[in-house]
Amino acid sequence: MKFNKLSQLLLVSAIGLILASFLAACQLVTIDFVFVAASASNTAGSNGQIYAYAVDDQSGALRTGQPTVSSGGTSPVAMALTPDYSGLYVANAGNNTVVHFSVASSGVLTQKDSVTLAATPVAMAVSPANNALFVISGSSSATLTVYPLSSGAIGAATATLPLTVPGYANDTIVPIAVTVLENAKAVYVAAYDKSAYNPGGATTSNANPGWLFGFAIGSGNALSPAAASPYQAGIRPSAIVSDPTNRFVYVTDFASNELIGYTILSNQSLNFMINGPFKTGDEPASLVIDPRGIYIYVANSLDNSVSAYSIALPTGTPSTIVSATGPSINITDTEPHSIAIDPALGRFVYTANYLGNSISGFRSNADTGALVPTQSSPYPTGAIPTAVVSVPHGNHATQVVAQ
After folding, report:
1. What is the mean pLDDT of residues 319-323?
2. How far out from the chain centre does Cα 134 lie?
């Protein structure tokens, strides 16, 4: 069969369109960057490293991004981002430093400045007002320190508050996690009383072991204790998060395998959710709320899984999400230690797996919150990764909740 010239041109054009569509479909588009804090080796006190990955917008699969950079210290344990994603802070337990990096639109990290603490840093949170960094530190005494931020640079501390339980001033309080409300009106710190909870060792106190300290944030980031603070928080709290609408706070209890929910009152004090606590997997270590404030994801370190929950918006009550089509258990690599969700689309969830030396990835169903593994998950990292965060690519907006 012969084609006239017009038919030949049409055929060539059609083939060209098909090829273009195929190539476009295969093109990898970066929607976010993922950063993981890990060590260069499994040796104690090993130099810290920040590993960078690019997130494919369709599959959520990770590929190696910008070159690995030093964390600025040894044994990194935590990371925090500025609300505009232009700054990254890394806490190094090995040399008691918090190091500030700028984040370029290409995902390149550049070390800027740092501060040295008197005690071991544990966790951090940046005020959504982008003017303060809240750092908790100490292995034998808990301290909350406020550092002012100016264009990301860390200033001299403006407040240092010891965390003690009323009536038990001599007890050893160990800080665990910190969160700041989206409206920058309060900061909450999860901690436990080692004098009352000391597996394998002696106890000297009959105090409740788990605590949540609340502080209202005033002018100049001055802190004042919230009414009735501190609040009981189970046995051994392991992580804390607040929802983007400033109505709820959630704490994981590592020892009792539970998720504890609180309602935030108008004076920044907390009330227990009366229908809680809620069951998690074994030894929950970290949790995150999606940018819309409707799903919670908990990383369970002992059974290597992620628990998914939907949030009842009127009450904050979390309900377990059961996938109708995917796996019944969201399996990670060994010992997930930290969890993050991408801010650009709010649909990809990642865990840093402490003993797996890897990242596990999941894709969230936007309508149900159910998870399925991302392509080729898990992804290799450096040794003993402890923290993971996600930054939107410069070309993309982020998910937000109208206040």
Report:
1. 88
2. 15
Domain-located, residue 35: yes
pLDDT recorded at residue 27 = 54
Residue 399 counted as domain residue: no
CA distance 250 to 237: 10
Q: How far apart are CA 368 and CA 350, in angstroms?
A: 18
Give me the half-sphere count of Cα atoms (radius 13 Å) on the Cβ side of residue 36: 33
Work out the percent of the chain whose per-residue pLDDT is above 90. 83
Burial class (CB in 10 A: 0-12, 13-18, 19+), 355: middle
User: For tokens 């009536």, what's the residue?
Assistant: 167
Amino acid identity, position 193? D
The stretch 40-56 carries a mean pLDDT of: 91
Show the tokens assigned to 18. Answer: 């098909």
pLDDT for 377 equals: 97
CA-nearest of 38, 70, 50, 73 to 385 is 38
Give the residue numbers spanning the domain of 196.
9-392
pLDDT at 40 over 50: yes
Query: Partners of 99 in the beta sheet?
Result: 90, 114
For 83, 108, 154, 293, the CA distances from 131, given in Å and listed in that order, are 10, 23, 10, 24
β-pairing, 330-331 with 318-320?
A: unpaired
**Number of domains comprising the chain:** 1
Identify the band that residue 62 occupies on the pLDDT scale cut at 50, 70 and 90.
very high
pLDDT at 11: 41
- How far is 380 from 68, CA to CA, in rounded Å? 13
Domain for residue 312, yes or no?
A: yes
CA distances from 258 to 55, 122, 250, 284, 380 (A): 31, 22, 10, 8, 30
* CATH number for the domain that contains residue 290: 2.130.10.10
